[in-house]
Amino acid sequence: MDILHHAAIGYAGAMSLAAAGQPLASVAFLAASVLPDADIIYMAGGKRAYLKAHQSTTHSALLAALASLALGAAGGVAFGPSEGIGAGLAFLAGFLVHVLLDASNTLGTHLLWPFGRRVRLDAVFFIDALSWALTLSVLATLWATEAAWPILPYALAMILQILFRAHLSRHARLESGYPIAIPDPLLPWVYHLTRPEEDGSASIARWSPRRGPHAQARTRPPSLAAVEAITRSEAVVGMSDFARALTVVDEENCPDAHRIVLRDVAMRRLGARYGEVTLSIRKNGDLHESINI
Description:
By secondary structure, this protein is an alpha+beta fold. The chain has three domains: 3-171, no CATH class; 175-218, no CATH class; 224-292. 47% of the residues lie in helices and 18% in strands. The longest helix is centred in the middle third of the chain and has 26 residues, at 151-176.
Protein backbone atom coordinates (compact mmCIF):
# COMPACT_ATOMS: atom_id res chain seq x y z
CA MET A 1 0.00 0.00 0.00
CA ASP A 2 1.05 3.60 -0.46
CA ILE A 3 2.56 5.59 2.41
CA LEU A 4 -0.55 7.76 2.77
CA HIS A 5 -2.74 4.70 3.33
CA HIS A 6 -0.26 3.25 5.82
CA ALA A 7 -0.35 6.55 7.70
CA ALA A 8 -4.16 6.53 7.71
CA ILE A 9 -4.22 2.99 9.13
CA GLY A 10 -1.62 3.99 11.72
CA TYR A 11 -3.74 6.97 12.72
CA ALA A 12 -6.80 4.75 13.09
CA GLY A 13 -4.87 2.40 15.37
CA ALA A 14 -3.48 5.34 17.33
CA MET A 15 -6.97 6.79 17.83
CA SER A 16 -8.20 3.45 19.11
CA LEU A 17 -5.31 3.04 21.57
CA ALA A 18 -5.69 6.62 22.78
CA ALA A 19 -9.38 6.02 23.39
CA ALA A 20 -8.40 2.93 25.42
CA GLY A 21 -6.15 5.07 27.63
CA GLN A 22 -2.80 4.04 26.09
CA PRO A 23 -1.15 7.28 24.88
CA LEU A 24 2.41 5.91 24.68
CA ALA A 25 1.26 2.81 22.81
CA SER A 26 -0.76 5.09 20.52
CA VAL A 27 2.36 7.01 19.47
CA ALA A 28 4.36 3.79 19.07
CA PHE A 29 1.73 2.22 16.80
CA LEU A 30 1.51 5.30 14.58
CA ALA A 31 5.30 5.59 14.26
CA ALA A 32 5.73 1.90 13.42
CA SER A 33 2.97 1.96 10.83
CA VAL A 34 5.00 4.29 8.57
CA LEU A 35 8.57 3.52 9.64
CA PRO A 36 9.17 0.65 7.12
CA ASP A 37 8.83 3.09 4.23
CA ALA A 38 11.96 4.86 5.45
CA ASP A 39 13.68 2.71 2.82
CA ILE A 40 13.18 5.68 0.52
CA ILE A 41 16.64 6.70 1.77
CA TYR A 42 18.08 4.07 -0.59
CA MET A 43 17.22 6.46 -3.43
CA ALA A 44 20.38 8.32 -2.42
CA GLY A 45 22.29 5.48 -4.05
CA GLY A 46 20.29 5.72 -7.26
CA LYS A 47 17.26 3.95 -8.66
CA ARG A 48 19.01 0.60 -9.01
CA ALA A 49 20.03 0.61 -5.35
CA TYR A 50 16.50 1.55 -4.36
CA LEU A 51 14.92 -1.22 -6.41
CA LYS A 52 17.29 -3.79 -4.94
CA ALA A 53 16.60 -2.75 -1.34
CA HIS A 54 12.97 -1.58 -1.58
CA GLN A 55 10.66 -3.36 0.88
CA SER A 56 13.46 -5.62 2.10
CA THR A 57 15.55 -4.67 5.14
CA THR A 58 13.01 -2.22 6.57
CA HIS A 59 10.12 -4.63 5.97
CA SER A 60 11.60 -7.56 7.86
CA ALA A 61 9.64 -9.35 10.59
CA LEU A 62 12.98 -9.98 12.32
CA LEU A 63 13.76 -6.27 12.37
CA ALA A 64 10.26 -5.61 13.73
CA ALA A 65 10.81 -7.99 16.65
CA LEU A 66 14.23 -6.55 17.52
CA ALA A 67 13.05 -2.94 17.32
CA SER A 68 10.00 -3.73 19.47
CA LEU A 69 12.14 -5.34 22.17
CA ALA A 70 14.45 -2.33 22.20
CA LEU A 71 11.57 0.13 22.40
CA GLY A 72 9.82 -1.88 25.11
CA ALA A 73 12.99 -1.94 27.21
CA ALA A 74 13.57 1.80 26.76
CA GLY A 75 9.94 2.56 27.52
CA GLY A 76 10.07 0.39 30.63
CA VAL A 77 13.05 2.32 31.96
CA ALA A 78 11.51 5.72 31.18
CA PHE A 79 7.83 5.14 31.99
CA GLY A 80 7.63 1.87 33.92
CA PRO A 81 7.32 -1.82 32.93
CA SER A 82 3.63 -1.73 32.07
CA GLU A 83 3.93 1.27 29.76
CA GLY A 84 7.09 -0.12 28.20
CA ILE A 85 5.51 -3.48 27.41
CA GLY A 86 2.45 -1.79 25.95
CA ALA A 87 4.55 0.48 23.74
CA GLY A 88 6.70 -2.42 22.55
CA LEU A 89 3.68 -4.54 21.64
CA ALA A 90 1.99 -1.60 19.90
CA PHE A 91 5.14 -0.90 17.91
CA LEU A 92 5.35 -4.57 16.89
CA ALA A 93 1.67 -4.55 15.87
CA GLY A 94 2.02 -1.37 13.81
CA PHE A 95 5.15 -2.63 12.08
CA LEU A 96 3.65 -6.03 11.27
CA VAL A 97 0.42 -4.49 10.00
CA HIS A 98 2.49 -2.47 7.54
CA VAL A 99 4.64 -5.32 6.25
CA LEU A 100 1.79 -7.83 6.08
CA LEU A 101 -0.36 -5.40 4.11
CA ASP A 102 2.55 -4.88 1.72
CA ALA A 103 2.90 -8.65 1.40
CA SER A 104 -0.77 -8.89 0.49
CA ASN A 105 -0.44 -6.59 -2.51
CA THR A 106 1.15 -6.80 -5.93
CA LEU A 107 4.59 -5.39 -5.14
CA GLY A 108 5.23 -7.67 -2.17
CA THR A 109 7.89 -7.54 0.51
CA HIS A 110 10.90 -9.49 1.75
CA LEU A 111 8.98 -10.42 4.88
CA LEU A 112 11.62 -12.90 6.08
CA TRP A 113 14.66 -10.82 5.11
CA PRO A 114 17.54 -11.73 5.05
CA PHE A 115 16.05 -15.14 4.20
CA GLY A 116 13.63 -16.22 1.51
CA ARG A 117 12.11 -14.43 -1.45
CA ARG A 118 9.72 -11.53 -1.90
CA VAL A 119 6.25 -12.49 -0.65
CA ARG A 120 3.26 -11.47 -2.80
CA LEU A 121 -0.36 -12.54 -2.34
CA ASP A 122 -1.65 -10.45 -5.27
CA ALA A 123 -4.82 -9.95 -3.25
CA VAL A 124 -5.03 -6.15 -3.43
CA PHE A 125 -3.44 -3.57 -5.67
CA PHE A 126 -0.77 -1.12 -4.51
CA ILE A 127 -3.47 1.57 -4.39
CA ASP A 128 -6.82 -0.06 -3.72
CA ALA A 129 -10.26 1.58 -3.65
CA LEU A 130 -12.00 -1.05 -1.48
CA SER A 131 -9.27 -1.01 1.17
CA TRP A 132 -9.33 2.80 1.20
CA ALA A 133 -13.12 2.77 1.66
CA LEU A 134 -12.79 0.52 4.72
CA THR A 135 -10.05 2.71 6.21
CA LEU A 136 -11.94 5.97 5.67
CA SER A 137 -15.04 4.38 7.20
CA VAL A 138 -13.23 3.38 10.40
CA LEU A 139 -11.58 6.80 10.68
CA ALA A 140 -14.98 8.47 10.49
CA THR A 141 -16.46 6.02 13.02
CA LEU A 142 -13.55 6.47 15.46
CA TRP A 143 -13.88 10.24 15.21
CA ALA A 144 -17.65 10.12 15.76
CA THR A 145 -17.67 7.63 18.65
CA GLU A 146 -14.35 8.50 20.37
CA ALA A 147 -14.25 4.82 21.34
CA ALA A 148 -11.78 1.99 20.78
CA TRP A 149 -14.15 -0.74 19.57
CA PRO A 150 -14.50 0.27 15.85
CA ILE A 151 -10.95 -0.92 15.16
CA LEU A 152 -11.95 -4.56 15.70
CA PRO A 153 -14.65 -4.90 13.00
CA TYR A 154 -12.42 -2.86 10.69
CA ALA A 155 -9.50 -5.25 11.17
CA LEU A 156 -11.79 -8.24 10.62
CA ALA A 157 -13.29 -6.73 7.45
CA MET A 158 -9.84 -5.90 6.08
CA ILE A 159 -8.54 -9.42 6.75
CA LEU A 160 -11.59 -11.11 5.22
CA GLN A 161 -11.57 -9.04 2.04
CA ILE A 162 -7.83 -9.65 1.55
CA LEU A 163 -8.23 -13.41 2.01
CA PHE A 164 -11.23 -13.57 -0.32
CA ARG A 165 -9.46 -11.57 -3.01
CA ALA A 166 -6.35 -13.72 -2.67
CA HIS A 167 -8.65 -16.68 -3.34
CA LEU A 168 -10.06 -14.90 -6.41
CA SER A 169 -6.54 -14.18 -7.68
CA ARG A 170 -5.61 -17.85 -7.37
CA HIS A 171 -8.86 -18.89 -9.07
CA ALA A 172 -8.17 -16.48 -11.95
CA ARG A 173 -4.71 -17.97 -12.49
CA LEU A 174 -5.93 -21.57 -12.36
CA GLU A 175 -8.90 -21.00 -14.68
CA SER A 176 -7.02 -18.92 -17.25
CA GLY A 177 -3.62 -20.59 -17.26
CA TYR A 178 -1.94 -17.20 -16.88
CA PRO A 179 0.71 -17.22 -14.11
CA ILE A 180 0.18 -13.58 -13.09
CA ALA A 181 -3.16 -12.10 -11.99
CA ILE A 182 -2.97 -8.49 -10.81
CA PRO A 183 -6.08 -7.11 -9.03
CA ASP A 184 -7.73 -4.03 -10.47
CA PRO A 185 -7.35 -0.95 -8.20
CA LEU A 186 -11.01 0.10 -8.63
CA LEU A 187 -12.95 -3.12 -9.32
CA PRO A 188 -12.11 -5.75 -6.67
CA TRP A 189 -13.53 -8.62 -8.74
CA VAL A 190 -11.48 -7.87 -11.88
CA TYR A 191 -7.91 -9.12 -12.48
CA HIS A 192 -5.35 -8.25 -15.15
CA LEU A 193 -3.65 -11.37 -16.48
CA THR A 194 -0.12 -11.61 -17.87
CA ARG A 195 1.87 -14.51 -19.31
CA PRO A 196 5.47 -14.05 -20.51
CA GLU A 197 6.04 -16.07 -23.70
CA GLU A 198 9.15 -17.95 -24.82
CA ASP A 199 9.78 -15.58 -27.75
CA GLY A 200 10.10 -12.59 -25.38
CA SER A 201 6.59 -11.27 -25.97
CA ALA A 202 3.81 -11.24 -23.37
CA SER A 203 0.14 -12.23 -23.50
CA ILE A 204 -2.25 -10.02 -21.53
CA ALA A 205 -5.96 -10.28 -20.73
CA ARG A 206 -8.65 -9.39 -18.20
CA TRP A 207 -10.53 -11.79 -15.92
CA SER A 208 -13.74 -11.58 -13.91
CA PRO A 209 -15.82 -14.33 -12.25
CA ARG A 210 -18.65 -13.82 -14.74
CA ARG A 211 -16.70 -13.55 -18.00
CA GLY A 212 -13.52 -15.48 -17.28
CA PRO A 213 -10.47 -14.45 -19.37
CA HIS A 214 -11.30 -11.90 -22.07
CA ALA A 215 -9.89 -8.87 -23.94
CA GLN A 216 -6.80 -10.93 -24.77
CA ALA A 217 -3.84 -9.41 -26.60
CA ARG A 218 -0.15 -10.07 -27.17
CA THR A 219 2.89 -7.83 -27.49
CA ARG A 220 5.33 -8.16 -30.39
CA PRO A 221 8.45 -10.30 -29.92
CA PRO A 222 11.66 -8.27 -29.49
CA SER A 223 14.23 -8.08 -32.27
CA LEU A 224 17.59 -9.86 -32.04
CA ALA A 225 19.23 -6.49 -31.33
CA ALA A 226 16.84 -5.93 -28.43
CA VAL A 227 17.49 -9.39 -27.00
CA GLU A 228 21.24 -8.77 -27.18
CA ALA A 229 20.90 -5.41 -25.44
CA ILE A 230 18.70 -6.88 -22.71
CA THR A 231 21.30 -9.53 -21.88
CA ARG A 232 23.92 -6.77 -21.47
CA SER A 233 21.75 -4.40 -19.44
CA GLU A 234 22.44 -3.94 -15.72
CA ALA A 235 19.22 -1.92 -15.48
CA VAL A 236 17.18 -4.94 -16.59
CA VAL A 237 18.95 -7.06 -13.97
CA GLY A 238 18.18 -4.37 -11.38
CA MET A 239 14.48 -4.57 -12.24
CA SER A 240 14.36 -8.37 -12.13
CA ASP A 241 13.29 -8.69 -8.48
CA PHE A 242 10.80 -5.84 -8.75
CA ALA A 243 9.16 -6.25 -12.16
CA ARG A 244 6.67 -9.02 -12.87
CA ALA A 245 6.81 -9.16 -16.68
CA LEU A 246 9.38 -6.76 -18.11
CA THR A 247 8.60 -6.74 -21.84
CA VAL A 248 9.74 -4.83 -24.92
CA VAL A 249 6.89 -2.49 -25.83
CA ASP A 250 8.63 -0.23 -28.34
CA GLU A 251 11.65 -0.29 -30.66
CA GLU A 252 12.87 2.52 -32.85
CA ASN A 253 15.88 3.00 -35.11
CA CYS A 254 16.98 6.58 -34.51
CA PRO A 255 19.73 8.34 -36.48
CA ASP A 256 22.27 7.92 -33.69
CA ALA A 257 21.04 4.80 -31.85
CA HIS A 258 18.65 1.84 -31.69
CA ARG A 259 16.16 2.68 -28.93
CA ILE A 260 14.39 -0.08 -26.96
CA VAL A 261 11.69 0.51 -24.34
CA LEU A 262 10.72 -2.18 -21.81
CA ARG A 263 7.82 -1.92 -19.36
CA ASP A 264 6.43 -4.14 -16.66
CA VAL A 265 3.24 -4.97 -18.55
CA ALA A 266 1.87 -6.96 -15.58
CA MET A 267 1.70 -3.72 -13.53
CA ARG A 268 0.37 -1.51 -16.31
CA ARG A 269 -2.49 -0.12 -14.21
CA LEU A 270 0.02 1.95 -12.23
CA GLY A 271 0.54 4.15 -15.28
CA ALA A 272 1.90 4.00 -18.79
CA ARG A 273 5.56 4.44 -17.80
CA TYR A 274 5.63 2.47 -14.56
CA GLY A 275 8.52 0.02 -14.39
CA GLU A 276 10.04 1.37 -17.61
CA VAL A 277 13.62 0.73 -18.77
CA THR A 278 14.95 2.53 -21.85
CA LEU A 279 17.99 1.10 -23.65
CA SER A 280 19.88 2.88 -26.42
CA ILE A 281 22.48 1.06 -28.49
CA ARG A 282 24.85 3.68 -29.92
CA LYS A 283 26.45 3.34 -33.34
CA ASN A 284 29.75 2.41 -31.67
CA GLY A 285 28.03 -0.41 -29.75
CA ASP A 286 27.88 1.36 -26.39
CA LEU A 287 24.73 0.75 -24.34
CA HIS A 288 23.02 3.63 -22.55
CA GLU A 289 20.21 2.80 -20.09
CA SER A 290 17.74 4.54 -17.80
CA ILE A 291 15.06 3.43 -15.33
CA ASN A 292 11.70 5.06 -14.64
CA ILE A 293 9.79 4.14 -11.45
